[in-house]
Amino acid sequence: MKVLRLLYISIVIVSIVSCDPDLDIDLGSGGSNCCQEKDSLTTCVQFIDSETSEPLEGVYFTINYSGCGSQNYSNHSDGSGNICWDHRACAKKGNWFAKIDDYQWKGCYKAISFNEEIHMEHATYLKFKIKNVSPSSSSDEVIISYKNLACHGREDISFKGSNVNKTLVVEASPLDIHPVIVTATGANEYYEQLYIDYVGWDTTLVEIEY
To answer: Does pLDDT of 205 surpass 50?
Structure first.
C-alpha cells in the first residue's frame, strides 16, 4: 500500500508543476498535459494617447509566447484602442512590440511587463537652424545625430561646404534622455551633446553654428 500511495502522490505533483509556464516538461503520451487548447486565457490591452488620454486606433501590436507550445499574435487596435487575443494558460509571455506613425515605439521586442493600458507618447519635432560661420572652408562638414521614434535608432543629417545655412524640421523621440549630437570637421573642429528640453507636440528650435 505504501508503494501505491507514493506513486499516486508523485503523479499528481508532476501534473501540477508541468503547468508552470517557466517549465517545459514532456510527460509522454500517457501523461497528463494541462496545456491543451481548452486551457486558454484572453488578454486585452488598450492603447492610449499619453497627452489627450484618448484611445488610439490602428496601433500595430505583436507578441509571442513560449513554454508549452510557441504562439505568436499580431493585429491592430480597434476604434476603441483595444486589442484582445487568446493564448494558452500555461504559456510564458515573451517579446512584444507596438508602433503607430507619429508616436514613440513601445515594447521594443523585449519580454517586459505591460499594463492593461499602454500609453503612447506622441512624437516631438525639432526645427534645426544650421549655419556655417567664419572661418570656414570648402572641406567643412557637420553631422547632426538625433533619436528617432524607433526603439534603438538614430538619424543623421550631414552638410558639406563653406556656405551652409539650412533650416529643416524633423520628427524625433520625445524622450529627453537622448541628446542631439553635433560633430563638425574642417576649419572649425566642433563636438557637442545637446540635451533638448522638448516641448510636447510642439516644435522645438535647435540652433547650431559651427
So the answer is: yes
